[in-house]
Amino acid sequence: MRKLRLFFCGRLFAFALLALFILLAGVFLSLWLPRALAPIAAAERFFSLAVALAVACDRSPAEYKISKTVLILLLPWMGAILCLLFFSRPRMTDFNGGMSENRSSKTSEGALAETLCGLRESRLSSAEYFPIGREMYEKLLTDLKTAKSSVFLEFYILSEGIFWSDVLSVLEQKAAEGVEIRLIYDGFGCSTTLREGYEKELAVRGIRACVFRPIRFPSRKAGRRDHRKLIVIDNRIAYTGGINLADEYIGEKIRFGHWKDSAVRVTGAVAGRFSELFARTWGTLDPSPLLLSPAEGGSIPCAVIADDANEREHRAGRFLLLRLIAGAKRRLYLNTPYLAPDTALMQAIESAALAGADVRLMIPHIPDKRLPFLLTRSYAHELERCGVRVLEYTDGFLHAKSVLSDDTVFVSSYNLDFRSLFLQAECGIAVKNKTLAESLARDFLGAWAGGTPLPPEPKLRGALTRLLRLAAPLL
């Protein structure tokens, strides 16, 4: 009920009503006006053709072009207007950006530099893997209480409850002690979990907060959200992964059964890389500078992987995933709640399985959103036919986003779908370390032991989900 109240009282409801009105008006115009006036029909065709040609000539992935073209064919006026106003253009370019700088030189741990070719390598002192949110929650509260200079938080979802209340209590206390507390949360992700103007309430408590892209209409960047989950403490400790600050992630609120997620805690020089990432996003929202102290320490090779919600940026996450998948020789374990990859990523996973690696994929058995769930199963069936072993997490909802390629671990906020791969701000960390790799492997295989096979796909549903794939890049 609380989410419904926030929805109907917030901008998202007004946005939805306006979008629905424009859609219905567009359908009406598409069906009625061309029959009434021949000149309008001709204008419709020329306008739709012009937009379709612009889509065809754009440097977007082929899947986006197909989706937009189908939309234009289905609703010539409205489809073309939606493509112009709302749907950003993910661009395919050679990788040379994001959180990357110069090509990594080979070191004693040259295998990581080779895997992450083109990505700036960093170092960490320690890395701890959390297989469930409760374990991260307990460790995080302890670390927050030790903060001396700064705490930076960047999240897609904040939801009032036990988890956020406990974190907020410590942050408020630290702010009173003079610790700099800065917070970024996403305008769409928190539209049904926080009140409008919540950042002003936090300011009274000494916490400086910014909302990433509040809901506005119209906006071509409306779909480009900040999907990161990131905490940096004193430029020496960093947390990242798939866990948001909401009660379902720590088992205090039951949604879809047991909520399975994962995160990592890292220390050392790499925490400074996460601080730089946070500072870059903060600088787009607030002109006040961040004072970052030098971060040092560490012998374990790693790399911070991140993408901005900006169509001009290159996509480091997709680049890394392709390299990790292509480089898997012995094992490739994948956790994802949503599976809707582009053709190149699908082919890379299939090729790894056909080349003889032990390729396993775990997806949810209980859906949180029906359409993405149907798409996930559709793509999973296709991978299964190519030799990928697929199971569904039976105990509840699988929200973990992790990859294990031989002894390289990648824990992040990236889903294996178009939104994460091409549109949203995401982040994660890749680490080549046998101890961390075995921790993730034990967790994955433990969940795998209780998994359930993919159910057979009825022919009619299979045909319908293949049609649904045409819209996958726009969902």
Task: Summarize this structure briefly.
With about 475 residues, the chain is of the alpha/beta class. Helix content is about 45%, strand content about 20%.
Compute the CA-based radius of gyration. Answer: 23 Å
Briefly note the CATH topology name of the largest domain: Endonuclease, Chain A
Number of strands: 20
CATH class of the largest domain: Alpha Beta
**Structural class, from secondary structure content?**
alpha/beta
Uncertain runs: 93-110
Shape: globular
Average pLDDT confidence is 86
Instruction: Name the strands of the widest sheet in spatial order.
Output: 1-10-19-17-16-11-13-14-20
The end-to-end distance, rounded to whole angstroms, is 25 Å
Give the domain tally: 2
Q: How much strand content do the residues show? A: 15-25%
CATH homologous superfamily label of the largest domain: Endonuclease Chain A
Largest sheet: 9 strands, mixed
The count of helical stretches stands at 16
Helix content: 40-55%
CATH architecture of the largest domain: 2-Layer Sandwich
Structural commentary:
This protein is of the alpha/beta class. It folds into two domains: 2-85, no CATH class; 110-474, Endonuclease, Chain A, CATH 3.30.870.10. It is 43% helix and 20% strand. It has 16 helices and 20 strands. The strands form four sheets. It has a nine-stranded mixed β-sheet, with helices on both faces. Strands 2-9-7-6-3-4-5 form a seven-stranded mixed β-sheet, with helices on both faces. A two-stranded parallel sheet has the order 8-15. Helix 3 (38-57) packs across helix 5 (76-85). It is globular. The two termini are 25 Å apart. Residues 93-110 have low confidence and may be disordered.
